[in-house]
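user: can you give me the structure for this one chain? tokens are fine.
assistant: on it. calling the predictor now.
[tool input]
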Amino acid sequence: MRPQSAQDARWQRPHEGKPKGWRIVSDPYYCQGAGYAEVLLPAADVPDGVGDSSVVLRPDETGPRGYFGWSTALHGELAAVSAIGEGAHGCPAGAVYLFRRDQAGPHRWSRVARLTPDVARPGLRFGWSVAVHEDWVLVGAPGDDRAGYEAGAAFLFGPSAIGQRGWMLRARHVAPDGHPFGWFGRAVCLRDGVAMVAGRRHGAVDEEAWATYTFRLPA
């Protein structure tokens, strides 16, 4: 059942990440698939009479069937929220929005970037999964077909330059044994300088036969 209000939506899809007690919750089906996401704040971060106990994250561009909130990640003061149905000119390839906590206080979060694939194609499902670690963002796109039909890919975004804020595509990873219906990128993780991406094992008959591939982050 789709939620009838934002209050209902906030408990539909609890997601990972509890730095400083913050959490992200979302519901990509809210309001005809426009989607919804917010950061829940611990009581210690909400002084009496200042702000709410949650902060709504707004993409500003996603409409119906954009599915904002499909996947979320949070590390430190950087949050990522995907919208796998978003696109332009009839090409719903997907996008990922980044939000950062303002120095003005924990109840203020601003959109700082919108990440998109290098080549937008319908059904790419860019943002099916997303992970964040420090200023690195890893985005799964299991519908990428450049290594075979729905072989999948994972896009790594990092700082545009040392000491500067901003993100650029640093690498596009595919499975070394990429094959059709590999769905590489269905799940992603970033930890200790390593990117981890899940995909179906080559030759697997069982759809649940998955493997995890690891890649070192660029220097």
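assistant: here you go. Residues 45 and 106 are 6 Å apart (CA to CA). The two ends are 46 Å apart (CA to CA).
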